[in-house]
Amino acid sequence: MSTYTPATIETLQALELCPGHSYLELGPGPGVSLALAATITGPGLATGVERDRHMTAFARRNLDRLGVGATVVEGDALEGHEPQAPYDRIHSGIGVPCAPAPWVGQLAPGGRLLTTLATRTPSWPGQLLVTRTPAGTIEAVLQGRPRGYRPMLGFRWLSALDHRVRVKADPGRARSTRLAPPPDDAYGFWLAAAYLAPGLVRDFQAETMTIVAPEDDSWAVAGPGEGTVRVCGPRDVWAELEELHARWEEAGRPESYTVDFTAGTGAQTVTSGAAPKALTWTLPTLAGIPQPRS
C-alpha cells in the first residue's frame, strides 16, 4: 500500500475520508498512507495498528518527523483497536478472507470500512466495502479488482510457478470450446471463479491465457486457434470455467455482489441478487488461517 501511491489515493477516495473523521488503519507498515490520511482528518484522529514491533517503531519515527498527529499502536490488527472506537472510517492494508467481527463492530453509524478480500489465488482479489447506516444496520458490497493488498500472515496462496515448465512442454490435448478467453477486466466473473471454481490460479506471464489447478495437477491453455483450448490433467479446468461463465451470464453478468452479515451463525454470505439463478457463496472464516508467532 505504501509503495504504490495510486492504490493509496483510490483507497482514500473510496472511503470518502474528510476532515474531522476518526480513522483506523490496520497494518499501516511504515506509515506513508496513515500520514496521508492524518493530513486529511486533522491531528489526533488517525490511528494505525501494526503487529510487528520493529515496523511499529519505524512508523512512529516517520510520523513524528512529519508532525501530522497520527498514532501507531502495536497489536493484532485483526482485533481492530477498541479503546478509540467507534471509527468513522476503517481501512485494512492487509487482505483477509472475510471481514473480522471486531472491525465491523467498531464502525460508527454512517461509517465506511474498506478491505481487500484475499482469495486463494492472487489472480482475482476482491474489494469489500462495508457501511453502517445511520440507523445502525450493516450493508456490504464486494467487487472484483485488478489488484489488492497482500494477505495476512499465515494465508497460503496458490501458485502456478511449479507447473510453468511442464505446461510449456505439454499444453495438453486440444478440444473445441464456445468460451472465448474472458477479458481481464471481467472482474465480476473472475471474482466468482475464485470461489465457485476453487483452486485455480492464472499464470499472467504465459503467452496465452493459462489457468492452473496446482493441487489437482491440471491446467488449461487457450488456443492454439480461435474456438479451441488445450486441457491437461484429471480436472477439466476449462469445462468448469465454461459452466461458471454460463451461470454468470444467466445471473445478469454481475460486476458487484452483496454480502450478508446477518446470519446467526456469523457466516458472511455473498450473492449477486435475488433472482432464482443468482450466484451465491459463503466466505471462508478466519479460523482456517494459522496465526504466526510474533
How does this model look, in words?
With 294 residues, the chain is of the alpha+beta class. It has helices spanning 5-15, 32-41, 53-66, 101-105, 164-169, 187-196, 237-250; strands at 23-26, 46-50, 71-74, 87-92, 107-117, 126-132, 138-144, 173-176, 201-202, 210-213, 218-222, 228-232, 256-260, 269-271, 280-282. The strands form 2 sheets. A 10-stranded mixed sheet has the order 3-2-1-4-5-6-7-13-14-15. A 5-stranded antiparallel sheet has the order 8-12-11-10-9, with no helix packed on it. α6 (187-196) crosses α7. It is globular. The model has no long low-confidence stretch (mean pLDDT 92).
Short structural description:
The chain is α+β, with helices and mostly antiparallel strands and 294 residues long.
Order of helices and strands: HEHEHEEHEEEHEHEEEEHEEE
Largest sheet: 10 strands, mixed
How far apart are the termini? 22 Å
**Got a strand count?**
15
Residue fraction in strands = 25-35%
Overall shape: it is: globular
Q: State the helix count.
A: 7
Q: Round the Cα radius of gyration to an integer and report it.
A: 21 Å
Uncertain segments are: none
How are the SSEs placed, and which strands pair?
Elements: H1 5-15, E1 23-26, H2 32-41, E2 46-50, H3 53-66, E3 71-74, E4 87-92, H4 101-105, E5 107-117, E6 126-132, E7 138-144, H5 164-169, E8 173-176, H6 187-196, E9 201-202, E10 210-213, E11 218-222, E12 228-232, H7 237-250, E13 256-260, E14 269-271, E15 280-282
Parallel strand pairs: 1-2, 1-4, 2-3, 4-5
Antiparallel strand pairs: 5-6, 6-7, 7-13, 8-12, 9-10, 10-11, 11-12, 13-14, 14-15
